[in-house]
């Protein structure tokens, strides 16, 4: 997909994600719908889901793709590192990332985007691809916008 196409897709996704989240108090359902939207519209997403901060670790939330690990500690793997650093991580080759947690041997690149609420990381969006170097600035911007859209869902906890 060219950068321009991707930008357009993310613009449409942003509008759709807003309509799925606004005024909805079914947190798990809304997060699940946003993941379904991403998986449908971006077929290169091999695994996409939320890990939610709960009781001191990242717990598996709504996702689509192969089965995944339930819990990730702070500072561990790509997800736990993105949480600890409170910043988006783009990993072009997961095999080169020290401590990468391989939920699926088919994953070759990954992006993890924190969701902030009240100045804290409350969850991360994790996306895996079977392609190397699948994620770029467009994905970072697009997924960070999606993270902002879902953030209010965490106001009442998860
Ligand atoms: N690869 C992640 C673990 C989660 S799975 O990709 C679904 C990590 O290193 O944190």
From TrEMBL:
Domain GAF: 12-158
One CC-aspect GO term: cytosol
Molecular function (Gene Ontology), one example: L-methionine-(R)-S-oxide reductase activity
Lineage top rank: taxon: Bacteria
SUPFAM superfamilies: GAF domain-like
Similarity-based family: Belongs to the free Met sulfoxide reductase family.
Record protein name field: GAF domain-containing protein
Native source organism of the sequence: Hallella mizrahii
